[in-house]
Amino acid sequence: MINIILPVDFGEKTDQLVDGAVKFAKEVNGKICLIHVAPTDIGFAIGDMGYQYFPEVEENEIREELVLLNKINQRILAQDVDCEHILKQGIAKDIILEYADLKNASYIVMGSHGRSGIYDVFVGSLTKGLTKSSKIPVLVLPIHD
């Protein structure tokens, strides 16, 4: 079976991305390996006393993201596509590429909003970075408003 890495960020276009990935997985008889990469600085805040770490904030955020990830996993399984999911913390590009290697994946599926300029510098940088660094094809699905 073909393993397809599907990174999600729970943004407003996640549903469209998942729908496209499910369609692709059905076409190639693939399994979706769903991944969310949380930043490592979730529990940190800057205040009057400088940097402070609040582990309960990080724990709550991770717990909420796992619930969201599980819902997407269940939604994919309900469409008769094999799926597993994982949440990791770190630098998204590195974690996604490591996961693709671990899963011996054939594809990484990402979304593109079709914008350019300064928006692309910040939001499209992960897709761009994966496209440049990946040893496997990165399928970029157009996601439109």
TrEMBL record:
<dbReference type="Pfam" id="PF00582">
    <property type="entry name" value="Usp"/>
</dbReference>
<feature type="domain" description="UspA">
    <location>
        <begin position="3"/>
        <end position="142"/>
    </location>
</feature>
<dbReference type="InterPro" id="IPR014729">
    <property type="entry name" value="Rossmann-like_a/b/a_fold"/>
</dbReference>
<protein>
    <submittedName>
        <fullName>Universal stress protein</fullName>
    </submittedName>
</protein>
<dbReference type="InterPro" id="IPR006016">
    <property type="entry name" value="UspA"/>
</dbReference>
<comment type="similarity">
    <text>Belongs to the universal stress protein A family.</text>
</comment>
<dbReference type="InterPro" id="IPR006015">
    <property type="entry name" value="Universal_stress_UspA"/>
</dbReference>
